[in-house]
Specification:
- This protein has 153 residues and is mainly α.
- Helix content is 63%, strand content 8%.
- It has a 3-stranded antiparallel beta sheet with strand order 1-3-2.
- The protein is globular and about 55 Å long.
- Keywords: DNA-binding, Transcription, Transcription regulation.
Length: 153
């Protein structure tokens, strides 16, 4: 059986992700943001004061990727890293006021991307599409954890 990219979930999801990222980048660039820092901001807008390890776990990214992302965010004045008062070995990540001020316009831009991308689907199809994506993600995460490929074992 010949491999067909047009029937490959991985290829199609990757292509979809690149299209989403391109549209999002165009909308958040005027805010001084990038698609590289946006996922971390989304998690921190839900609640900051996290450790780097907590961010890595929530975003399912590699340590070097997060280290680089946080360095850029600190350079750009989006976060500060403070020592944990209870454990001097731990540094907690806090949003700056400028990052907090970007939450509404940045998440509105992301909502516009999602609305535009999914406008050809009925409300039922949208719900099913998102549910299936979540199911596949959970399956891949469970498989990675079971095989030790999640970087946590």
């Amino acid at each position: 059986m010949r491999f067909s990219k047009d029937d490959s979930a991985g290829f199609l999801v990757n292509h979809l992700a690149r299209l989403f990222a391109r549209d999002l980048q165009a909308r958040i660039k005027p805010l001084g943001l990038s698609t590289g820092t946006f996922p971390a901001l989304l998690v921190l807008w839900e609640g900051d004061g996290l450790t780097q390890r907590e961010l890595i776990d929530r975003l399912d990214v590699e340590q070097p990727t997060m280290t680089h992302t946080l360095a850029r965010m600190e350079r750009d004045g989006l976060i500060r890293r403070d020592q944990d008062p209870a454990d001097g070995r731990v540094r907690r990540i806090w949003l700056t006021e400028s990052a907090r001020a970007l939450e509404a316009p940045a998440t509105a831009a992301a909502a516009q991307v999602n609305t535009s991308a999914l406008e050809q689907l009925s409300p039922e199809e949208r719900a099913a599409f998102l549910a299936l994506i979540r199911k596949v993600i959970l399956g891949l995460q469970a498989e990675a954890a079971a095989s030790g490929r999640d970087g946590k074992t």
